Amino acid sequence: MTDPLLACVTAGSDAEAAVAWSRWRSGTDIDSIPWRDKLLLPLIPAARRGLLQAGDPAAPLLTGFARRAWTQGAVFAARARGIVGVLNAGGVAPVMIGGSTAAFLQVREDGAVRPATDITVLLPRRHVDGAVEILRQDRWQPRMPVPPRPVRSWAHGLMLDREEESLRVAWRHVVPPPWRSGMAERMLFAEPAESLSAEALLLSRLAPEGGWNDVIPWQADVAFLAALPLDWESVFQMASALVPVVADRLREAHGVIPGVPRPSRFPSPTIRLEDAVSSGIRRTVRCARRIAGRP
């Protein structure tokens, strides 16, 4: 892996991490650390960070990025829970927290922190209109018109803004072919909880258009989630049924990122063809909208 800090995050041993850290530290000006690296640093387990930073005069500053990630994550989580509470009080349920805030809530015992950079909530498609009206009363405004019911099998979410805050409301955590959207939603809301499960988070992180909009590479998130107790067979089942590219990425991660097993299920040619057709149609629609001057 050519990116030294990413290699440090995904390393299978402290020795491998130390080599990668030395490469990163020797080429990094402590006064101008890129934003992406500031987000990656908290993903290194706390004990490993201590070993890597031993004797480094900049250790307090580097450790501060993890502390800031905890603080900011707690703020995002509180805001997300508040939004869920508002929606529940208005009769919208179930509502689950998704995206990077849900990943932050997957607390790692070793002290690794997944920075929260967005607020995402997921709810059943039938509640979208009601949820938007409730949120309007709480001063949230949609950036674009709410997708009409007939096209919600193709769309999967919308953005709302309130002053300087942004909120993503979605009814799916992945974007499968529209004829499989119902299956995706049934699988998602089969066992609702406060936030997405680690398995669903992994699927959404690896899937195209999963709604993760920060600069952290997918490999870092896979390493973070793979260290949790995961039902890998469930992940493989969802991937093979909904988003074949996830299986491809998991095969790529196997043997490189600790804890990632080789996928036991492989998407059928039919599923792959459906996914390719669906992706092509979505690209065509986006191109037509741009030509027509619509966002």
Task: Describe the protein's architecture and organization.
- This protein is an alpha+beta fold and 295 residues long.
- The chain has one domain.
- The protein is 52% helix and 7% strand.
- The chain has 13 helices and five strands.
- The chain has helices at residues 4-10, 14-26, 35-40, 46-53, 59-89, 99-105, 128-137, 181-188, 198-206, 218-226, 232-242, 244-253, 269-291; strands at residues 96-98, 120-122, 141-142, 157-162, 165-170.
- A five-stranded mixed beta sheet has the order 1-2-5-4-3.
- Helix 1 (4-10) packs antiparallel against helix 2 (14-26) and helix 11 crosses helix 12.
- The longest helix is centred in the first third of the chain and has 31 residues, at 59-89.
- The chain is globular and about 60 Å long.
- The model has no long low-confidence stretch (mean pLDDT 88).
SSE layout and pairing:
Blueprint: H1 4-10, H2 14-26, H3 35-40, H4 46-53, H5 59-89, E1 96-98, H6 99-105, E2 120-122, H7 128-137, E3 141-142, E4 157-162, E5 165-170, H8 181-188, H9 198-206, H10 218-226, H11 232-242, H12 244-253, H13 269-291
Helix pairs in contact: 1-2, 5-6, 9-10, 9-11, 11-12
Query: Total domains, how many?
Result: 1
Largest sheet: 5 strands, mixed
Helix/strand-derived category reads: alpha+beta
Provide a count of the helices.
Answer: 13
Please provide the ordered H/E string of secondary-structure elements.
HHHHHEHEHEEEHHHHHH
What percentage of residues falls in helices of 4 or more residues?
40-55%
Described by the principal axes of the CA atoms, the overall outline is: globular
Q: What is the spatial order of strands in the main beta sheet?
A: 1-2-5-4-3
Overall average residue pLDDT: 88
Strand count: 5
- Poorly predicted spans: none
Q: What share of the residues does DSSP label as strand, in percent?
A: 5-15%
CA radius of gyration is 20 Å
Q: State the end-to-end distance.
A: 36 Å
